[in-house]
Amino acid sequence: MTTTPNSGINEIVANNYAKIKAIREKGVDPFPHRFKLTHKIAQAAKCPAETPVVIAGRMVLMRVMGKAAFAHLKDGTGKIQIYVKKDSVGEESYDLFKKQMHVGDFLGVEGKLFVTHTGELTVNAEKLTVLSKSVRPLPEKFHGLTDAEARYRERYLDLISNEEARTIFIRRSRIVASIRDVLNSDGYLEVETPVLCAQAGGASARPFITYHNAYKYELYMRIATELPLKKLLIGGFDGAYEIGRVFRNEGVDTRHNPEFTTLEAYKAYSDYNGMAELVETIFEKCAAIIGADTIDYNGMKINIKPPFRRMSLPGEWLKKTGEDIHEVLKGKAFNREKLKKLAEKLHIEHGSDTTSAKLFDRIMDEKILASLEQPTFVMDYPTAVTPLAKCKAGDESLVERFEFFAGTEEIANAYSELNDPEDQQSRLVEQLRQQEEENNGEADILDKDFIEAMEYGMPPMGGIGIGIDRLTMLLSGKPSIREVILFPLLRPDQPQ
């Protein structure tokens, strides 16, 4: 007989649908509406012997021994053993359990706790309830899903079989909750801003474009939440933040996913130094969550206990390139010819179509990034790559901006926010020039509505963006963003 790769699984599925039919023929609903618990499994595990409990979970192990059986049930809090004896649950219930139930099924169990002779806390089942009959087999017990793409594509199976994956996403949730606690306690207001925008501003990135049928025009999916949040401070809030998805139509690799989660927060009367203090407060909370001051990340041992180093970018640039950073700057713009000459001197790969901003980034990446293993605030960036930040007093070539790095990865980006509408407009006009002359499709757009809002008066403020995915990668020791996003974007699965 000729078999196909799916013939084995098809036979299992057919057999399990037959079991569902057999259960129904006994007058039992294999998919009941609800089940009333007295304890989650972790709660039951803390109770003394003889405590009556009603628990439920997925069966992850089953050993039948004639007129009795042992099984393990697992819920979102833990795992516990159950003992199913024919004399205790009745012949009909035991027969159904033995013949029709298997690993993967959800089961409700009522009984009393006892301790086996091996010292394991166990529920002595008095009543069994079928809660959900699974049809497909779970991944093999000891290896789970070994193919990385299968793990990401079928994350639900990864979570069932891979305890580390569950731990990462529980940790991620706690990280986000701790950030909310920090900001809420400091007077920030959590808000929601539009995902669909008439213009995609607030960052240098390529947007996704969609179309609104009723209004009959194109809309952009947001690339940042910066501009609407700043408008809220113009409107009178002293602090506002949003934790949400943003979308950038760019490359996909271990550090980038087209949709990702950011925190953006803005506080009136603060500046980039105030935002640095916020980062350190957040890391203190995160260190408490993971219960350690150091983490292993991508072969590096990183100390995440504040305070963190502050590095002057102009000083480090001089040290690593041998030139004053002002040599490649021309006021608030780049001196493109000198930037290209420096790139050639440093053997930085580039072409005639490489934008000035990209060239600057490549020099940064190749000459400075490697020294940023330990948490570091890199302070004071060129105005040419930062159109939304205040210039440093007495130096229009540089702005009050830091990027925060750890494990050589950028985790956060913060400014003393520009609140002069005339200066802001001239900066965004320069970005338009970059778009046209250098074909820079990632330059910031000129948002006239935002300029108009600024003209009503915008308080001085500090603002920050933190990549939640990057932060979770760091704190979980995972160098791939796909390990910390529940459902990363993948190429469509090819039909077998």
Task: Break the fold down into its secondary structure elements and pairings.
Layout: H1 7-25, H2 41-44, E1 52-65, E2 68-74, E3 79-85, H3 86-89, H4 91-100, E4 106-115, E5 121-132, H5 148-153, H6 155-161, H7 163-185, E6 189-190, E7 196-197, E8 209-212, E9 217-221, H8 226-234, E10 239-247, E11 259-268, H9 272-290, E12 294-297, E13 300-303, E14 309-312, H10 313-321, E15 329-330, E16 333-334, H11 336-345, H12 356-367, E17 376-382, E18 391-392, E19 395-406, E20 409-416, H13 421-437, H14 448-454, E21 461-467, H15 468-476
Parallel strand pairs: 3-5, 6-10, 14-17
Antiparallel strand pairs: 1-2, 1-4, 2-3, 4-5, 7-9, 8-9, 10-11, 11-21, 12-13, 15-16, 17-19, 18-19, 19-20, 20-21
Helix pairs in contact: 6-7, 7-9, 7-15, 11-12, 13-14
Could you describe the 3D structure shown?
By secondary structure, the chain is of the alpha+beta class. It folds into two domains: 7-132, Nucleic acid-binding proteins (OB fold (Dihydrolipoamide Acetyltransferase, E2P), Beta Barrel); 161-483, 2-Layer Sandwich (BirA Bifunctional Protein, domain 2), CATH 3.30.930.10. The protein is built from 15 helices and 21 strands. Strands 6, 10, 11, 14, 17, 18, 19, 20 and 21 form a nine-stranded mixed β-sheet that branches. Strands 1-2-3-5-4 form a five-stranded mixed beta barrel. Strands 7-9-8 form a three-stranded antiparallel β-sheet, with no helix packed on it. Helix 13 packs antiparallel against helix 14 (448-454). The protein is elongated.
